[in-house]
Amino acid sequence: MKNMCGSFSDGISNLPNIVIEKILVLMPLRDAVRTSLLSKKWRYNWITIPELVFDDTSLVDPSPIFSRQRLPPDQLSSRNRLFATIYHVLLLHRGAILKFILSISELKSCSEIDALITILSSNGIQELALKIWKGDPHKLPPSLFSFQQLTHLNLQFCVLKLPTTFKGFPRMVCLELHKVIITADKFQTFISSCPILEQLTFESSTCFDFIGIDAPNLKVLSFIGIFKSLKVKNAPHLANFSIDSKASVGIVERGGDKFGWAGFFDSLPVLKNLHMGGQYLMSLGEAGLGRRLLTSWGLNFLELSDVRLGVQVVCWTVLGLIKISPKLRKVIIKIKVLSEPSSRGGDVSCIWYTN
């Protein structure tokens, strides 16, 4: 048994460095760091991995770090322990950091985040995710906009203000903004400053009167929130579009704040996959466009959520969308089950496949 274990260990250790690096990247960071205890050969393997993920599942145990310091770990705040751990990992790390994720369920806005972003700005990072889960939204520092190598950016619960010196993200292909606070005009400026953007997700709790999108390489577009009007221009490759309010009080119930659908789908000539929330679906029907869209639509996939089949205009709109889409291969309809006030409602999903 001992010989077998030794042979297995030697087999792993003798793998090419690029293979070992990929193995370490797939492991939670905590476990990748712990491989340094295996042998002298493994002691420094983890310090060159190009992806650092700090989340609830991969957070490094800070206890070994504080064993070298005068202040016991139990006398430090959880925030100080977290960032001391991150700084220690960065101090030991060697080589490029291509991907950095910070998403801790207890993470709140703090000055240490700004300091961390400033440190990372000189590392040539290509993928960055920062997710705030509690407290107030975090005001992003100007140093974030100096990440000129960024290809993927994922922000949650942040305040986004473009500095006057911002020249755009020339390499950005994927942008996700969840509950990010930004004005409509700055949002449009931001998007137009990402010339090769292919995927965009925007989730907001603010009601927007108008949002304009000008992204010639855009392929995937997702909006979550309350929007009265959207305009997509110069998007000849946009094949996937999703819009949903995910709110208990939305565009229909707000007293006339209905979405402006007129001419919207005319700007999406190659649309293949469509997801629409129930309130937008009802708005489409009340606008009288459910049966007056393109006579031949190239949709392959249609998903409708929070559908109230008890409302006649919704039923006609659902049938109209299916009728004008002869190339449909899959339809998912998530029905909103209405119930008595004293009981709880629910959802029922129906899936159809076509030949």
C-alpha Rg (nearest Å): 25 Å
Overall mean pLDDT score? Answer: 82
* Structure summary, number of beta strands: 16
Shape: elongated
- The number of helical segments is 9
β content, as a range?
15-25%
What structural class results from the helix and strand content? alpha/beta
Strand line-up across the major sheet: 1-2-3-5-7-8-10-12-13-14-15-16
Taking the sheet with the most strands, its summary is: 12 strands, mixed
Distance N to C terminus:
56 Å
Give, in order, the helices and strands.
Answer: HHHEHHEHEEEEEHEEEEEEHEHEE
- Taking pLDDT < 50 over at least 5 consecutive residues as the criterion, the unreliable ranges are 1-8, 62-71, 248-256, 340-345
Helix content: 10-25%
Q: Can you give a write-up of this model?
A:
With 355 residues, the protein is an alpha/beta fold. The protein contains 9 helices and 16 strands. Strands 1-2-3-5-7-8-10-12-13-14-15-16 form a 12-stranded mixed sheet. It is elongated, with a radius of gyration of 25 Å.
